[in-house]
Amino acid sequence: MLKVQKIFAILIASLFLVSLSACSSPKETLTSQPPAQTLNIGAISSVDVIPIIIAAEKGYFEKEGVTVNFQSFKSAKDRDAAFQGGNLDGIICDIVAVSLYQNADFDVKITGVTDGDFMLIANPNANINAINDLVGKSIAISEKTCIEYTLDKILEKNTVEPKDVQKAIVPPVPTRLEMLRNDKVDAALLPEPFSTLALKDGGVLLGSANDEGFYPSVTAFTQKAIDTKANEIKAFYKAYNEAVDYINNTAIDTYEDTIIKTVGYPEDMKGKISLPTFRKNELPSEEEIQSVIDWTTKNGLVKKTLSPKDLLNDIGIQ
User: How far apart, in whole angstroms, are the C-alpha atoms of residue 214 and residue 42?
Assistant: First the structure.
């Protein structure tokens, strides 16, 4: 009899514990989940950042449950200092930059593409009307970046050797524009909105990355961020893609004020801004990446033997 009573008592206790477990509040259950982390992302102000800005303004990041801290920089040097200093998880940069990071044992992976362009624009007072006229002329660029890579490719496609022009190293993009305006250089390679401003001043458009089939800019995250903030990065790209849908299917005057404020177009460009058709996130082709790796190796920027797979991670398209 005592044995039966003991078994009965154990059963009652077990049922009581199960009941307590079942009655636990949702709040108590959720505390076991890791808290969402902030994604810190940096970029030079350009057209490339528009989907990120729109995703923030329209609440797409919040909808996907990710907090994005976006920081704008005036030069690749400043952006890279923040990135390498551990203040950023990811950046908008270029394939050259990622190759250099890997060469320096800074494990960064390309996780997506962007749709900005680099335009080669001549000073209206320099008597330059074609790319062949650039021989012996000064061109403002940032060195060891996709700006220099793009310039070399544009020149080579038009049978001009890169060594036959004078490369003026001017990292800050606004300074490049000012030097072009003040006749300090004969030409400059510029992203938007600075290229539009240069053309508005009477600059002569000689060529562009996109016209030559180059889409050099990318989004990239450190491998550490990919390992520790995978859910946040996936959520970031879901919101990014939703912003791309919105931009491509909405009249620009609906969000033009946001573009002017955040990208840097002057107010008098309102109603005249033209944007590219943005792509939903994808990875650049291995052929594109190999072309950049070959250029960095040829120019002595990279000593390691790199392959496109060393630079890629598909977390942004999962």
Answer: 22
| pLDDT reported for residue 221 | 98
d(CA 42, CA 70): 6
Instruction: Measure CA of the first residue to CA of the last residue in the chain; give whole Å.
Output: 62
Contact present, 277 and 204 (Cβ < 8 Å): no
How far is Cα 139 from Cα 211, in angstroms, rounded to an integer?
19
Q: Tell me the backbone φ, ψ of residue 70, rounded to 5 degrees.
A: -95, 130
At 83, the amino acid letter reads F
Q: Which residues are CB-contacts of 75 (< 8 A; sequence separation ≥ 6)?
A: 44, 142, 171, 172, 173
In contact, 316 and 111? CB cutoff 8 Å = yes
Strands 138-141 and 166-169 come out as: parallel
Q: In the prediction, which pLDDT does 70 show?
A: 96
pLDDT in tens, 26-51: 444 444 456 779 999 999 888 999 99
CATH fold of 38-115+216-317, please? D-Maltodextrin-Binding Protein; domain 2 (3.40.190)
Residue range(s) in the chain whose domain bears CATH number 3.40.190.10: 38-115+216-317, 118-208
Q: What pTM was estimated for this model as a whole?
A: 0.82
SS3 84: helix
Report residues of the chain scoring pLDDT below 70: 1-34
Rounded Cα distance, 128 and 118, in Å: 18
Q: Which CATH architecture has domain 118-208?
A: 3-Layer(aba) Sandwich (3.40)
280-315 pLDDT per residue, tens? 999 999 999 999 999 999 999 999 999 999 999 999
Q: Which amino acid is at 96?
A: V
Sheet strands (E) in 153-311: 166-169, 187-191, 204-208, 217-222
Task: Decide if 146 contacts 94 (C-beta within 8 A).
Answer: yes
Identify the residue whose tokens are 């403002």. Answer: 140
CA distance 70 to 66: 12
